[in-house]
# Entry
Amino acid sequence: MPLIIAGRLSDLPLELRDGLGAFRYDVFVRRLGWPLPDVKENETIEWDHFDGENTIQIVELAPERQICGCARLMPTTAPYLLRELLPRSSDLDFPSSPTVWELSRFAGSGMQLFPYVMAVAASLGATRIIGVVTQAIARLYRRFGLDLQYVGPHPETASSPFVVCAIDLTPAAFAKLGSDLDSLRSSITWHRPLTPNVPGSLGTAPRVAHCALRGRRVIDPVPAGTVALRRN
# Structure
């Protein structure tokens, strides 16, 4: 079973934070070659201006304590990726609700991480997550039985290879992925501010090493937060 860690970037131990930044750089910049505007020259970490105090980071560690997956969740009550990147003329109904969170910077081996991301979102009060995906990934999610709600044009009528869609965090959605919310919640390690008498506060970091994910199927986002499927 993987170790899933969640928390704000500022609450993650330094070693884990540095490892996450390096992992994101390796996946999104070095391997996929995305021209991310916030990546500085000669740096080997990847962050952007959305990695703030409103954003929850999710890290997947392999049994060897290697980082092998990541994601981030942002509330739609604050600035988020879709609103910034998609034109106002797109006629999309951008949500602003404490129960709707945006998923981006998602990378993992197959679908193993995805139900945990759903569980973290549900723990934050979300009943729905939204994001931009390629049409290929939309088909992948449907093959797993997930009920995608298209926020923008339906793939059959869309001219773009990307679609904006949402997934409702219902018991049926978790069951389609062979999981249940309570079991997933109990296996997530939260990093919270170190304050006295706060259950779940953590003071030590796990050992973090870079994981190349060679030979695995990887679900990767593109710069707009889109999710694309790639074989190594």
Observations:
- Residues 14-31 form the longest helix (18 residues).
- The mean pLDDT is 80.
- The chain has one domain: 3-231.
